[in-house]
Design a protein that fits this description.
The protein is an alpha/beta fold. The protein has a domain of 212 residues: SGNH hydrolase (Rossmann fold). It is built from 13 helices and seven strands. It has a five-stranded parallel β-sheet with strand order 2-1-3-4-5. A two-stranded antiparallel ribbon has the order 6-7. Helix 4 runs parallel beside helix 10 and helix 10 runs parallel beside helix 12. 35% of the residues are buried.
Length: 313
């Protein structure tokens, strides 16, 4: 019996050593999260334009078209909570920063922690990657999110072997050197792109969850815009173009709630700039990746010059 227990103990120790070695080895593999954080750390003295937010900007803001000192630090699926953490860490370290660009659209006031808890596998991945590679714990401070093996579905095995095979940096980070996402292209969108990621039709009055998320977002967004005001930096909010299949599901009540939320933020910071491109003319089928996202092929080349005009006003 003692011999058996000894073997179990030895086996457990070996497994634990392999587990720890694997987790540590992944720290040295470039990925989207570590790349964007390190880029800001390295170039913080040069940055003029910082793009934050989620995939609505990550997919279609080509910073090579915005001039020197622009970087797209947005990431798919990012909760606004993490944008706030990044801003608080770096706002005092970017002396040349002129403006921060953020997405804000018809349902952002609903999107919060309760939504994430309903989609645990996906958002456990985000919590893990933001903690391990950007140093931002989830708001509840759960340290156990650090382990990729236990929490992340971010293809950690594939990343490790890709790194060993000396894959290109852009293949590992999934973005180009200035941060635009590379997977949301015209060629990869699929035949069903018009019906993918169609908006939910529930309005604020229809959901207790929406009310709770709204309350949390009032606090987070108010803190964000107050920081921007105290540092005398421009904050540009963009409601991005959406395709007609998505637009048909966005009723006037949702648009009214969006405008009311922005009006509330303007009471905290009257200098906020909000530009609504939801119904912007000129965007055609080939500009979209799915029903609510522009692609990085044609959409980015069409939208980024519009943003440059806004910035250069």
């Amino acid at each position: 019996m003692k011999s058996f227990l000894k073997k179990i103990l030895i086996f457990s120790v070996i497994v634990m050593v392999i587990f720890i070695a694997y987790e540590v080895a992944l720290l040295w593999v470039p990925n989207e999260f570590s790349y964007k954080k390190r880029y800001i750390e390295k170039h913080k003295n040069e940055l003029r334009i910082l793009v934050l937010g989620n995939s609505h900007l990550a997919d279609c803001i080509d910073c090579s078209l915005l001039g020197e000192g622009a970087f797209n630090a947005a990431q798919p699926g990012r909760s606004f909570y993490y944008d706030l953490q990044l801003l608080k860490e770096f706002i005092d370290q970017m002396p040349k920063l002129e403006c921060v660009v953020m997405p804000y659209s018809y349902d952002y006031q609903y999107w919060g922690h309760l939504y994430e808890k309903k989609h645990e596998p996906k958002f456990n991945t985000y919590r893990c990657m933001y903690l391990k590679y950007m140093g931002y714990p989830y708001s509840d401070g759960e340290w156990w999110h650090w382990s990729e093996i236990l929490n992340s579905n971010y293809n950690h095995t594939g990343r490790l072997f890709d790194a060993l095979l000396n894959k290109r940096l852009s293949d590992l980070t999934m973005c180009d050197s200035l941060g635009i996402e590379l997977d949301a292209s015209y060629d990869t969108r699929g035949d069903d792109w018009m019906t993918r990621q169609l908006p939910d039709t529930a309005a604020l009055a229809d959901s207790t969850e929406h009310h709770l998320n709204y309350r949390d977002n009032v606090k987070l967004y108010s803190e964000f815009v107050a920081i921007m005001r105290s540092h005398h930096k421009r904050l540009i909010l963009l409601a991005m173009p959406i395709y007609t299949t998505a637009r048909e599901r966005v009723n006037q009540q949702r648009l009214d709630e969006m405008n009311e939320f922005v009006a509330m933020l303007k009471r905290v910071n009257p200098d906020i700039e909000f530009y609504n491109f939801i119904d912007a003319p000129g965007f055609v089928e080939r500009d979209y990746y799915n029903s609510i996202h522009l692609n990085n092929t044609y959409g980015a080349r069409k939208f980024t010059p519009l943003l440059r005009e806004i910035i250069e006003k």
